[in-house]
Design brief:
Elements: E1 5-10, E2 24-29, H1 32-44, E3 49-53, E4 62-63, H2 68-73
Antiparallel strand pairs: 1-2, 1-3, 3-4
Length: 82
Amino acid sequence: MKHTWYVTFEVPPDGTLSRRRHPRLTNTFESEAAAKDFARTKFHDGLIVTAGTIIPHFPRVSIPSTEIPTWLEAPGQVDPDQ
């Protein structure tokens, strides 16, 4: 299957470097449900999370960090890949 969803999250500081080279990491997922599960874990860990669909996937979806709680709580969303 093709990965169509991504979740980007801040990397928590570990105190070993004064400045991190990559303060954010991104993981990709085959479905919205898998992306939500991962995002939920990172969000509950207190990290800043964003998500969306990978270009050129259509329809384009982008979830900013301010809308992550609503996206995680939204029941019955239909994943276009399923």
